[in-house]
Amino acid sequence: MANTATTRPVPFGAVAILNVVTFFSNTFGNALASYNADRNRKDLSALSNRLLDDIGLMPGDIQTTTRRVTLLH
Hints:
Oligomer: single chain
Radius of gyration: 22 Å
Number of strands: 0
Shape: elongated
Strand content: under 5%
């Protein structure tokens, strides 16, 4: 298969539409990640120290863990 260079221009407005869609996609994704992190933080905070110890967490680790998990997604 040969590589050929095309010189056709991008359709008018295609780049602008892509930027708008990307913006809303990123905004929605960030809002959803923030909501999930808050929900996880709330759920983990409701657990007793014994249950937290069973899953390998300390009460002071909840904030850091939820932030780290949010950054991974």
